[in-house]
Amino acid sequence: MDTYNILIVDDESDFRTLLVEALESMGYLCEGAETAEVALDMARTRHFAIIFTDLNMPGGLSGLDLLQAIQEIDPKTFCILMTGYATTDSAIQALKSGAYDFIQKPFKLAELDASLQRALNHYKALRQNEAYQSGLEERVAERTREVVKLKDDIEKLFEGFVQAAVFAIEARDPSTSGHSNRVATLTVGLAEAVNRTPTGSYGPLHFNENQVKELRYASLLHDFGKVGVREQVLVKARKLEPERLERILQRIYQRDLEAVARRLEEAWKRSEAYEEGCFEIVMAAHRAESQRIADLVLRCNEPKLLTQEVVDSMDELEELSFLHWNGAVTKVLEPTDIAALRIPRGSLSKAERDEINSHVDKTYRFLKQIPWTGTLADVPGIAYAHHERLNGMGYPRALKSEAIPPQSKLMAICDVYDALVAADRPYKVAVTVPRSLEILEDEARAGLLDGEALGIFLEARVFDLTMNQIKAEPERA
């Protein structure tokens, strides 16, 4: 049998004692109190499941007063009123005041026990329900903690995946090390600056926390498609690959040897005696011309803008020949070499430039494979448009301003800026920050970049966010 504390409150000592002893004999833990004040003191120190109290007690608090006070001290206690002067009104008043039951004196012990059983059954049901609710709340809380931890673990896992992807990009193209993280820092900084801008076309636009996170991931992964581009194209610093250039210079040197050999052969056929230093003298005469040709090749091989003078001089390169080991007369520069050297600016041919540009499509196809959650669903689309330009001159889809997501417009500014100031790319020299900002303004005026977003970029000095990360060098003439 479960044990519950029961309190009998009655100013009649004999009656009180009788009830206490009777209930104790029935297996209950029971105590008595002669006044409502004493009962309240006892209720403040321990919990009573059931309190039986006389309704009318002289010289102090009544049973109704006790009932109301108990509700404040310990609302879980069930109170049953006992009185010898019961009326319908008093019973109704007692029940309205919170009494569980009402017993009229004199009563038989069986009536008391029946009332007690009803009260205890209700009391136990409530306590069991409370225990269930408490257990349920704890289980829900525990499950919530598990879900939150799982969410945190997934976010950490995904963050690690993103950083691993950035590592893969930079391992593929070490010359752009740090670019993805810097672009993400700048783009998030520009988005936050947009949030602080109340006017203009960007005034109504506000990026919430999830949208900023979405923009950060898109920025970090915007170049991931480069893992699908050939490494020799990604890191191509000159128009000719080193082994191709070495082959051409070796052939030019071989032409000198062939010319010297012919001169010496002709001299011997004329029965001229060999003179000390003759070979060096003849070789030096040819080396001066060969060095001029080699210098022209080296000059054309640089990714700088070709002058018309250099372009006109290149015709003679097509006619150079040497004797192949198999006896055939062969061109020093093959057609592919000539085509590469004739690239007017930069180091990439059109096919190579197209291959580089294809990294945007590859990025989009890669990002579309990831089951992004609803708050990150636009990551692929934002990254897909970061090389689009407002006037439709961008790639890969030649989108115009209205079709380009605003996030992509912000990223475009940050991407171009970082590419300009970066000093670790083998195919270009770093541009100073002031000059880079001027170039950005020129591109905005030309309809390539968003002028209003660039204004926010400049006004908020977003470029300061990566100033200590770039290895910018003084601009060279």
From TrEMBL:
Pfam families tied to this protein: HD, HD_5, Response_reg
Keyword tags: Phosphoprotein
Keyword Phosphoprotein found: yes
Transmembrane segments: none
4-aspartylphosphate modification, residue list: 54
Response regulatory domain location: 5-120
BP GO terms, sorted: phosphorelay signal transduction system
Stretches assigned to the HD-GYP domain: 154-246, 270-472
Protein name: Two-component system response regulator
Organism of this sequence: Mesoterricola silvestris
Taxonomy of the source species: Bacteria, Pseudomonadati, Acidobacteriota, Holophagae, Holophagales
